[in-house]
Design a protein that fits this description.
Elements (H helix, E strand, L loop, with lengths): L4 E5 L6 H14 L7 E6 L4 H8 L4 E5 L16 H6 L4 E4 L2 H6 L4 H13 L3 E6 L3 H5 L3 H16 L7 E4 L13 H16 L10 E4 L7 H5 L6 E4 L6 H10 L2
Parallel strand pairs: 1-2, 1-8, 2-3, 3-4, 4-5, 5-6, 6-7, 7-8
Helix pairs in contact: 1-2, 1-10, 5-7, 7-8
The chain binds 1,3-dihydroxyacetonephosphate.
Length: 248
């Protein structure tokens, strides 16, 4: 069976002490024979600290955003080349919180994905519909539009992406998509990838949105759910470890 991938998105949480405690707890509790990939997407300011803390462990380093520009007069931005220097493996792009609060467009997200790929960083392309869009029957159209922008832009690199389906109404709300609802959208995304690459099965499709220790196993049992992108539950070692255990 394909290895699952569990990535924690810390969002704007953490601190020097809290990060050290959290990662020590995760490292201590990881199964000796880990059967899934594990990553943490941390605030960029902690990259050096977390790089050292995950050294010699199976935990991959990730970030929550990357600039679409190579370098120059882009105040506040962090380039893919800078991230590469810290050993970053994954960069979230197009998280709904960035689309919503920072006005990121599908085109921006596509450029960010390309910028990451150019430096050997795997983009985790986040897609998902709002509650209003779901209720209007637009779920498929929305996620397909969001993913299409990236597929068109990255060309033959499609098989190097990770895609995360995160229904906006499920993020931080405690309302998880049912395994059937999530699987239905994942199947749509898989088919869209398959139309673009013969290696669509290789692309990990993560589910995100109130995934926790109690619901992880059922979600991860779906045929097209290859892992999880975990917000709140990634901030407590015990909870994150239980999700990892469900992915074994
Ligand atoms: O946005 C998410 C991960 O990127 C999901 O967040 P929660 O797990 O807190 O709902």
């Amino acid at each position: 069976m394909k290895k699952k991938l569990i990535v924690g998105n810390w969002k704007m949480n953490g601190g020097l002490q809290a990060n050290a405690e959290l990662l020590a707890g995760i490292r201590q509790g990881l199964p000796a024979a880990l059967q899934c990939g594990v990553g943490v997407a941390v605030p960029a300011v902690y990259l050096a600290q977390v790089q050292a803390l995950v050294q010699d462990s199976p935990i991959a380093l990730g970030v929550q955003d990357v600039s679409q520009h190579e370098k120059g007069a882009y105040t506040g931005e962090v380039s893919a080349a800078m991230l590469q220097e810290f050993g970053v493996r994954y960069a979230l792009v197009g998280h709904s919180e960035r689309r919503q609060y920072h006005g990121e467009t599908d085109a921006d997200v596509a450029h960010k994905a390309q910028a990451a790929l150019a430096k050997g960083i795997t983009p985790v392309v986040c897609v998902g519909e709002t509650l209003a869009e779901r209720e209007a029957g637009q779920t498929e159209a929305v996620v397909k539009r969001q993913l299409a922008a990236v597929i068109q832009h990255v060309g033959h690199c499609v098989s190097e992406l990770v895609v995360a389906y995160e229904p906006v109404w499920a993020i931080g709300t405690g309302k998880t998509a049912s395994p059937e609802q999530a699987q239905q959208v994942h199947a749509v995304l898989r088919a869209q990838l398959a139309a673009a690459t013969q290696q669509a099965d290789r692309v990990p499709l993560l589910y995100g949105g109130s995934m926790n220790a109690a619901n992880a196993a059922q979600l991860l049992a779906q045929p097209d759910i290859d892992g999880g992108l975990i917000g709140g539950a990634s901030l407590k070692a015990a909870d994150f470890l239980q999700i990892i255990a469900a992915a074994q």
